[in-house]
Model the fold of this input.
Amino acid sequence: MLYHLFYPLASSFKFFNVFKYLTFRTIYAMITALIVSFILGPWIIRRLEAMQARQVIRTDGPESHLKKAGTPTMGGVLILAAIVIPTLLWADLTNIYIWVTLFIIIGYGLIGFVDDYKKVVEKNPKGLSPRQKTFWQVLLAAAVGIFLYNLPGFSTDLFVPFFKRFHPDLGLLFIPFAAVVIFGASSAVNLTDGLDGLAIGPVAINAATYMLFTYIAGNTKFSSYLQIPYVPGSGELAVLCGAMVGAGLGFLWYNSYPAEVFMGDVGSLSLGGALGTLAVITKQEILLVIVGGIFVIEALSVIFQVGSYKYRGKRIFRMAPIHHHFELKGVAEPKIIVRFWIITIILALVAISTLKMR
Done:
């Protein structure tokens, strides 16, 4: 809104010319997200407490978690507000990719909100059934895949890091592929959200990395120089990524150990879905496996644990996801969290380095 309000004034007042620069609007989207978090955070936490939206702790989990019982959850509402408001203020709202990504953020946020509300407010331990959650997540992800497939000029090629001439056209397979990436990213972040600040830290790092990817993909000179796919208009997503980084840091203010509030599914599903959508639009789906390596490891630990117990009758880890395994081995929760952040930073740098290895 601010972009559309002030940029037209640039012809009369040179100062307003700054609104055409993505870097300027991205920085202020990030700052705005932080301000929104600091203003709304205490109020939202009080509202969640008044609603009795309190975290239910698994009795079969680590004993150290029992003291977290009663901590407000559904804090992802704050994250969504801190992403959506700055994006609407600073982004070019005629850009279709902004609306596609917001569609997933809000849509997945609603799925998570309904699930959380049933569990913690209505005291229905089942919430949405796994089948219901999966159905709606896949449906929204597939809708994005279908829309992008039919979007004029949008490439359905799969670009593989390290192989600049290998980019097969997926054709109709692009639709299920996009759905799997978005759904998979959402589910992986959801599984990672188990310790104070464990998920939101890597999400902010991933968003910062894709802020760079979107900027480059939307710039014909940079994308040509680095030999990565040029996606006209995708650069505007840098503003949304900036809002995600700011929202992540703002939420971390309250979610860092010991947490005052948890994000719940309303936050984890929407953030993961957003990362998956950014990867699909920028044609950097495979790099998401590297950047989001922590999320991948967490998801695989659950898959391997369930598979091993089902077919072998034995567990691989003391408890899954894998962060609980380390807890049960005696590693302090803050140490696990910070080490996972460090690993994510390293993986992000590796992913960025591939831009020069084409």
